[in-house]
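sry for the spam today, last one i promise. struct tokens for design, 281 residues
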């Protein structure tokens, strides 16, 4: 099969984006990586180190950036909105420097304002960011959330209004997180659940937009609305849906990245090994 999915992980970058990140990736057998280029719980916008950037570019594996968790284009706070714009712009610029294929951003929450008000902000502020991305820059990947708290997008069908507001921009893509989708009510563990969900995703955004999978099992049952990741096969999703996901034609060749619990390399190495087995058998 020519369309083998790289299996990798979100990797810690202590010691340097490439020095630390690629060392961790090698320890766990990751074939693709996702990194933070800023404190995930802050608004600081650090400069890159050119030598590290070059080393990561030269690594020859798919690289992705996850934007900090505070980013929310639906926020009624003008301060949060301004910082969200600056942060995503920073991640996109850093992404180009490290040769990232995509920058993942959470679809956000309306918090206390109306859905339409929040979505107008998405259009007004995300569309110009998409237009700024040079042709050889990363895609901006929307990641639907687990639901609750006035989330703008949880079910895959909720991506439709995002693609409408953002005019199906050529630099717009999707990151599908299995734990989020399961928590939002897509029963991936039911017979045909993966096929139904991915078919609905493709019906909503069209072919070629799904660019990345976050492969996480879920501690909580389907439709819980809770976003608590579990190691592959140890949660409520279980192993078989991941095997199904590798076999859906719309997922061919797309990297699978784990964001599962465990600080030591051992649980991550096991998750990667499990996913490779499900992919290859
Ligand atoms: Zn995720």
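last one done:
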């Amino acid at each position: 099969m020519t369309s083998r999915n790289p299996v990798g992980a979100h990797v810690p970058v202590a010691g340097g984006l490439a020095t630390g990140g690629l060392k961790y990736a090698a320890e766990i057998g990751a074939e693709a990586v996702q990194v933070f280029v800023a404190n995930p719980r802050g608004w600081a916008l650090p400069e890159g180190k050119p030598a590290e950037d070059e080393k990561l570019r030269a690594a020859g594996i798919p690289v992705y950036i996850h934007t900090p968790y505070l980013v929310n284009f639906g926020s009624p706070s003008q301060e949060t909105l301004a910082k969200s714009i600056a942060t995503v712009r920073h991640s996109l610029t850093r992404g180009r420097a490290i040769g990232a294929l995509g920058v993942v951003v959470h679809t956000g929450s309306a918090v206390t304002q109306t859905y339409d008000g929040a979505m107008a902000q998405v259009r007004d502020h995300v569309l110009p960011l998409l237009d700024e991305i040079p042709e050889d820059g990363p895609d901006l990947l929307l990641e639907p959330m687990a639901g609750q708290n006035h989330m703008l997008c949880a079910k895959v069908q909720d991506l439709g209004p995002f693609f409408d507001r953002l005019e199906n921009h050529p630099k717009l893509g999707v990151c599908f997180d299995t734990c989020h989708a399961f928590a939002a009510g897509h029963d991936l563990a039911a017979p045909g659940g993966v096929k139904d969900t991915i078919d609905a995703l493709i019906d909503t955004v069209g072919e070629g937009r799904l660019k990345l999978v976050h492969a996480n099992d879920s501690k909580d049952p389907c439709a819980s609305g809770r976003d608590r990741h579990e190691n592959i096969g140890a949660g409520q999703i279980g192993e078989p849906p991941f095997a199904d996901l590798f076999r859906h034609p719309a997922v061919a060749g797309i990297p699978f990245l784990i964001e599962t619990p465990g600080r030591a390399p051992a649980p991550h190495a096991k998750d990667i090994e499990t996913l490779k087995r499900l992919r290859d058998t």
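The mean pLDDT is 96. ok im logging off now
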